Amino acid sequence: MPEDIISSIQESVIQGRMNKDDEGMDEGMIGQPGVTELVEKALASGLSIQNIITKG
Fold this sequence. Notes:
Layout (H helix, E strand, L loop, with lengths): L1 H14 L19 H10 L4 H7 L1
Helix pairs in contact: 1-2
């Protein structure tokens, strides 16, 4: 699961999606979690800040 969250964070960064209200470069992504929501989810699941920053 941590790898899934990290992967989603990486994709949202590439897409330029700060939060769920951002569309990103690929249309149709509005409403899906963005970087902000994904980082909050990662922290809540116990992932360390260091892993989020270095891998995400």
